[in-house]
Every structure is written in structure tokens, then in C-alpha cells.
Design goal:
290 residues; alpha/beta; Helicase, Ruva Protein, domain 3; Rossmann fold; 2 domains; five-stranded parallel β-sheet; 12 helices
Length: 290
């Protein structure tokens, strides 16, 4: 909609987890390094957590893009509480058909696949996104499945990606053995003020935009209202650019951003940003071109 007006090659603040737009803040870079280390050091279990919208899935997509041909990947994108057994979902993610639908046949098909890939010089990486939805019973099933690894041969690695509730689940006494097997562990936190500015400019640069489209005072308000959560930063910046396009403004002024936030607050249909203490509509109007 506004791409041509701003001279962009793509929407810089789309909500899709495009690894091309990944901004490697200090902590995101560390998280990626830790996950890569876990794969290279033959960790049986790795764990990545972060609040909703913190960039976990985008980071995961970058990790997958960088993997070589020595890893066979099965990705379960939307783990949920209705999982009664992990076997069927893992088989589907790896593209494997069992002999029948019995638990024994599914387990045997998985193990045979792990061993077959290992014989080809490849390890199997099973990734479960939204893993906070998994029950303790399914997590325990994952632990038992990892027993296919021996002291000398690692044929299966498991990466759990989820929200902070996953950590609460893993602290349960019955999952103590599971938690002890997690070798690599990282938690993503919101961006600080400086990182938020760098994040906005990075995404604009990738899309071929003007890095001054959002002035520093607008960046400060974006950080305060979004709490530094990348997904909320994207939502606010994208809407601000729509408003700027409608006003035929070449940059997002503080007044225009105030209008976006007031309209979001008054609409009451979507999750609200922190918009307390905004000036009234009469006190701050969006800048219009002369």
C-alpha cells in the first residue's frame, strides 16, 4: 500500500517471521550462537524461551536457514495441549509413514528413521515450537524418545521453543530428569530503548527505506508504548506508516504517532499499547504537508 510512496522494496514491519529482517541484538545474537553451539556440541536438548512477540520464531527460521545437509529436520510449528502422544506428530514432521497406527509401530518407525539417517552421516533435529502447550506427559515421552541416543552415538537432538510458562512446567518435580538433560538454555527479553531504535532502522534498511523516517522522539514513544517487544514495535510502526501515507507525510512525526495511539485506544477492538498520559487530540495533531 505505502511501499511505493516511501520507496520501499518490501513492507519493513510485516508480522511474518522473515529471517531476512532478523535484527541481531546482543541477546538475539547470543541466542542464535547458543542454539548453533547446542547443535554442534551434540546437546540432546536445547531450550529457547521468550515472551509473546519477542522474535523466537524469526530466530528459529534463521537457524534453519543456516543448517547444513548433515541435519535432518522435523519441525512441529504449533504444539498444543491436545497432543496425547508425540510420536504421530514427529512422524508427520519428518515425513515418515509407520506400518500402522499403533504406538509400537509409530515408535519403531521413528527409531528406524533416526538410525537410518545416522547411517547416512546425518543427525535428526526435532523442533517443537509453542512448546509451552505440551503436557508433562508428552514432555516425558520426549525424554524417553531421546534414550535412543547412546553414550557414543547421538542420533536425535530436540529443541524446545516456547513462552516463559514452559520454564514453569519444567520446574515440576516429575520433570526433574527432563530438565537435567537440557544442555543449552536461553531466554529472550524485550529490547531496550537503544536496541528498539536500531531494530526500527535495521528493518527500514533491509526494505530499502529512509533510516530517518522515524525521528528519535518517535522512537522513544514507540519503545515506551511497545515495551520493546518486537512484534508490538512492528504493529505500531506499520500503522504509523499507513497514517503517514494517508497524510502524504514523508516521516512519522510525534503528533502523527500520538494520533495512531489515540485511535488504537479508542477503537477498543485490538490489544492496546500502553497509551497513558498521551496529549489530547487538540494538543497534538498529525503534521500535514504544507
Amino acid at each position: 500500500m505505502y511501499e511505493r510512496f516511501f520507496g520501499l522494496t518490501a513492507k519493513p514491519f510485516a508480522l511474518t517471521p522473515d529471517p531476512a529482517f532478523l535484527y541481531l541484538s546482543r541477546q538475539h545474537a547470543m541466542a542464535l550462537t547458543m542454539l548453533e553451539y547446542g547443535l554442534e556440541s551434540q546437546a540432546s536438548f536445547s531450550l529457547l524461551t521468550g515472551d509473546v512477540g519477542s522474535g523466537k520464531t524469526t530466530l528459529l527460521r534463521r537457524l534453519l536457514r543456516n543448517l547444513g545437509d548433515q541435519v535432518s529436520v522435523g519441525l512441529i510449528s504449533h504444539a498444543h495441549g491436545r497432543f496425547r502422544s508425540i510420536h504421530g506428530w514427529a512422524l508427520s514432521a519428518l515425513g515418515i509413514a509407520p506400518a500402522d497406527d499403533s504406538e509400537i509401530a509409530m515408535h519403531e518407525a521413528l527409531v528406524d528413521s533416526f538410525i537410518r539417517e545416522y547411517g547416512r552421516g546425518r543427525r535428526t533435529l526435532l523442533i517443537l515450537d509453542e512448546a509451552q502447550n505440551l503436557s508433562p506427559e508428552v514432555l516425558e515421552e520426549l525424554r524417553l524418545l531421546s534414550n535412543v541416543n547412546s553414550e557414543s552415538d547421538l542420533v536425535l537432538q530436540i529443541l524446545l521453543v516456547g513462552q516463559p510458562e514452559l520454564r514453569t512446567t519444567l520446574m515440576r518435580p516429575e520433570l526433574r530428569q527432563f530438565a537435567q538433560r537440557i544442555s543449552v538454555d536461553y531466554h529472550l527479553r524485550p529490547l531496550d530503548r537503544e536496541e528498539t531504535g536500531a531494530y526500527v532502522r535495521h528493518r527500514l534498511a533491509v526494505a530499502g527505506g529512509d533510516l530517518k523516517l522515524f525521528p528519535e522522539e518517535a522512537i522513544g514513544l514507540i519503545h515506551r508504548c511497545s515495551g520493546g517487544v518486537p512484534r508490538l514495535v512492528n504493529q505500531l510502526c506499520d500503522m504509523a506508516m499507513v497514517y503517514a501515507f494517508a497524510e502524504q507525510a514523508r516521516s512519522v512525526s510525534l503528533g502523527l504517532l500520538h494520533q495512531v495511539l489515540r485511535d488504537r485506544r479508542d477503537g477498543q477492538a485490538l490489544p492496546m499499547f500502553e497509551v497513558a498520559d498521551l496529549p489530547s487530540a487538540d494538543a497534538s495533531q498529525p503534521d500535514r504537508p504544507e
